[in-house]
Amino acid sequence: MLIALGALLLRLYYVHTAIVDHPIHGDAVQYYAYAWNLVHHGVFSGALPDATTISPDSFRDPGYPVFLATVLGTSSPDTFVDRVTGMQCLLSATTVWIYAVLARRWIGFPAAIGASVLLAIWPHTITLADYVLSETLLGFLVAIALVLADQAWRRGGTWRPLAAGLGFALAGLTNAVMAPFGPILAAVMLWRVRSQRRLWMLVLLAAIVPLAAWSLRAMAVSGTGESAGDRVKMNLVQGSWPEYHAAYLFSEENANAAAIMKTIDVEYRLLRSDTPAGMGRIVDRLGREPVRYIGWYLSKPLELWGWDIGIGAGDIYVYPTYRSPLLMQPLLAGVVGALYFLSPFILLLAATGAVMAVGSPGRDAPGMRLAAGLALWVTVVYGVLQSDARYSTPFRGLEMMLAVFAVNVVTTRLYHRKRLQNGRNAS
């Protein structure tokens, strides 16, 4: 609780000190438009507020726009951003607390301290709370889903598994990358744990129903605009181009970058209008330089779990940000510099922890197997689509838990080995 309180104070200090240049631009424009149309027209639409026609669509997932609509409905436009970032500071700090609880249950008290401190001071989780973007809300919902799933398999009942399934559904409705994970988890557990079939059937039901309802709504409004499926196709095309990040950043200044962006858009339009032809064009391009593209896809997990935000201002910032205390305050700048140096080693420890969790025998570390499975799922999906350090921010708690889990396993084994050796020497 004290670490979570420290995380809250740190985030509030950051958002009240840093200045984001034009906070409503980029993806935030679309999120704001959806929230505005929900509040003022009762329609889920990405049409800009001054549009003459407000047509429903399903291009964006509904979770974050609904969250913004609840804030917008009770605030003036002048205070909207401040209220959103304040709420996100609270959500981010609560996420730190939830991962501390999970780490204590799944690994132990020292691990809970280590994981929660790392998550509390991790720069990306601080800076993302100051943007009108969905990552902070998604991270909170993922943590909620995990702790509810833990409660369900520990204590059973009816409402706990239903709540766990609903938690995964809400995360999926905030970011479609999470949508299949809850049902897949429930289906696997139904197959493997026959003694808890009723429990996991309830999780499966609660995870599927909200997603199915949203899918039916999306089918009903198909043809009125770009859909969620179109957004997947867009990310698939963009993620297949190693040059995309650089071309995106310099398309207004460099003719070659602008030409690459135009080619990417042509591929997306073809994939959207004629999926087989679009896929054929992508496969043909990849086939002309197989070694290069294999290397690119193998490197994408490092893009995802790395440090620099590629689609944005760079480093730990999505939008241009001035007077950042993470740069100007000496102590915080020193912490950020240390974490930048340690980040590859933390990632390596997390990967080691994931392997250890998956390979643990019997009933050892079931929670950590869940954490490893979710981290692997995110890595694979974003590896196929578009990878960026921004997108891993909601899942950094998993990385910290897996890293401290690896340290815990190694130190525990060394301790037991030393005790065994001392016992042999004494005998």
TrEMBL record:
Coiled coil: none annotated. It comes from the Bacteria. The keyword Lipid metabolism does not apply. The keyword Secreted does not apply. Signal peptide: none annotated. The chain crosses the membrane at residues 96-121, 128-148, 168-191, 198-216, 331-355, 367-385. Keywords: Membrane, Transmembrane, Transmembrane helix. This is Glycosyltransferase RgtA/B/C/D-like domain-containing protein. The lineage of its organism: Bacteria, Pseudomonadati, Pseudomonadota, Gammaproteobacteria, Lysobacterales.
